[in-house]
């Protein structure tokens, strides 16, 4: 187990996700981790860093540029795309699903690289989950704001109480088989058009 | 082969309804996931999905947009896609074990011809005009020769050599750009620098001065000339009109386990390709392509690209290229092995691989005319699968060379500009 420490390059335009992965790698005891957010000067960086493993998000259109780089130079000796063990379809699918890809110097032992890939996959997934939750929370907040505004408009125009305004919105939504927020949105839109 | 009967054109409409349930059981659901890159040459796949050609064959064609050819390759290899829109050299590269994830890939159907062009920055073109007295209407060859003169001067004056963008190491664009440069006397490996730029970023990169030119598919050349940053100096037709472009690729394992679905898909794509070639359908096609789900480019540019009406420079000079896109006519969908072998010859020419009999066999095996014929009937005659290319009037190479698939080493040796000693084919390159 006295193999030389792996040099890992993380390329991700998303700063937050990149730092989540970097932290994970460091926690797992990898000290030679470099993070790049943009592809400018990548060729030179790779020559300097000489990474054993490159982790890159697959939404990055510059993957084709890296393919060309590897074709041209032997800066990274014989990099191979993605996966250490082709027979391990479960982890391959997990990685593609998570949106992460890796280049690995040929000849590296599978046991050394697999944990890195697994960690990247789980952090990519955790990041997507986080983003989803954030988006959900945001839209819930937006919806609540719209309902509040619609209630306010109704209260003012019809001189009714807040509770009556809410009942009115809910009743209309039920009658028209629409979502409460959709009705609230149309009240807000209509008010914007009709008033002033 | 009872199922084959209802696949013959005209016969399947009645028979399909009866036979379908049985096939659904034997081959699984008929959803076909297809990866594509947002380019006009994905038209046949997009038309098949949008205008009912796939549905008519009982296929739900699920198109998935992607951002890089490396992704398309990997997601096909790892079964996220059943089929994919691919560069014609990609299955050949995979068969030869080139690239960083070579995995068995075949093409039973080409998606058409044309669509590429070479665009230079207006800055560089102005220097060519000054150096070689260009009036603007010169041929692609004259433009390449003018560029050669500029490069001679750049070298003499110690200037930085031009940088050109293309799309992928195993792309028609790489080989076409190199072919054009070399035809003009420019060595693509020592006289210029070639880099990869994702197609949608090409006109920005040109405007920013990060590159001095590029070879890429439609609509990106016209986008650059419309923006006033680029001058189109050569079209694919100028280099070799019947040069292969994109293909529909799949895994041999998927083709073997889904013969009926593949056959039906080929029938659907053939009908879609025929439809795409009808001038009266081009506006509807342009509307579909312009959609944000597909190419996401201005519809008027796509319309003109499909008609081959080019604004070649920022002054508004026009050039009309007949048959700039051929989606079906002249057997544009036939995966002729001589095309795979021509691609192989260019890989040898530029040092990506060395020549060998085994390499020839592997390269040729990536193109599967047998599957095309199984779906669409006995023509064309397999006797012409290894035909001589570039010898027919109207379909010649820009430099007048003729490609004979039976003499690849001599063909490659006949080019004055090439990589001298190509690395030999070795399986451990995989």
From TrEMBL, chain A:
Coiled coil: none annotated. One of its GO terms (biological process) is phosphorelay signal transduction system. One of its GO terms (molecular function) is RNA binding. Residues 127-188 form the ANTAR domain. The keyword Ribosomal protein does not apply. Keywords: Phosphoprotein. It holds the Pfam family ANTAR. Residues 7-121 form the Response regulatory domain. The modification 4-aspartylphosphate is found at residue 57. Gene3D superfamilies: 3.40.50.2300, Winged helix-like DNA-binding domain superfamily/Winged helix DNA-binding domain. This is Two-component system response regulator. It comes from Pararhizobium antarcticum.
From TrEMBL, chain B:
It holds the Pfam family NMT1_2. It comes from the Bacteria. Keywords: Cell inner membrane, Cell membrane, Membrane, Transport. Its main location: membrane. Gene3D superfamilies: Periplasmic binding protein-like II. InterPro entries: NrtA/CpmA_ABC-bd_dom. It is found in: Endomembrane system. GO terms for cellular component: endomembrane system. SUPFAM superfamilies: Periplasmic binding protein-like II (SSF53850). This is ABC transporter substrate-binding protein. It comes from Pararhizobium antarcticum. The lineage of its organism: Bacteria, Pseudomonadati, Pseudomonadota, Alphaproteobacteria, Hyphomicrobiales.
